[in-house]
Structure to design on (202 residues):
């Protein structure tokens, strides 16, 4: 539990530091996830919603760092045609971004790659009919660590106002279940679109 506490503390410390910086932006984002449970037999991928908001700091040139707060529908389909595992998380990634262009004027196109840790906080676990799959937290863990990596581009609509298009792959690093002899982890491929607004400029 100490490692989760440290990561949460780091996220809020980073957000506080970003709040005093220039070139800070924020905004909403929404997208689609295709996820599965790696290590669990007789399952296949399922689609879900990925939506939330972000705070981001980016230099005028090549580097950025940001914190995202996302509602993330994960899980997997079971072999039975009407059954699935829906694991709904609050996901908090801290992403470090490298931009391949330093342009910031309206009309600028900035390709990018990013990577960073994330922590998942389980909100609920349900089957397709909406029944609880985790009574008294017996079967799925409340928190899970992972790493997110991907790429995309930003397009400047106006001065410091950007459309953000990202493709990402989220890899669970810790077991999502309570079972002591399993190693079942969340995996998810996502595509998101966001809109960033400035909070300051250099």
């Amino acid at each position: 539990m100490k490692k989760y506490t440290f990561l949460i503390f780091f996220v809020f410390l980073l957000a506080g530091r970003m709040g005093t910086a220039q070139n800070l932006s924020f905004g909403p984002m929404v997208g689609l996830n295709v996820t599965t449970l790696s290590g669990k037999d007789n399952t296949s991928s399922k689609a879900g919603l990925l939506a939330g908001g972000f705070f981001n700091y980016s230099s005028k040139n090549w580097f950025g760092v940001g914190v995202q707060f996302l509602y993330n529908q994960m899980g997997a389909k079971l072999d039975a045609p009407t059954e699935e595992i829906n694991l709904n998380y609050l996901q908090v990634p801290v992403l470090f971004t490298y931009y391949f262009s330093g342009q910031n004027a309206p009309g600028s196109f900035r390709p990018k790659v990013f990577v960073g840790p994330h922590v998942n906080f389980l909100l609920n676990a349900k089957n397709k009919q909406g029944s609880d799959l985790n009574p008294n937290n017996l079967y799925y863990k409340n928190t899970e660590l992972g790493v997110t990596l991907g790429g995309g581009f930003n397009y400047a609509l106006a001065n410091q106002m950007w459309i953000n298009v990202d493709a990402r792959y989220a890899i669970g690093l810790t077991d999502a279940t309570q079972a002591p002899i399993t190693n079942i982890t969340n995996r998810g491929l996502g595509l998101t679109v966001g809109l960033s607004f400035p909070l300051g400029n250099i």
The first strand starts at residue 24 and ends at 38. Confidence is low (pLDDT under 50) at residues 9-21.
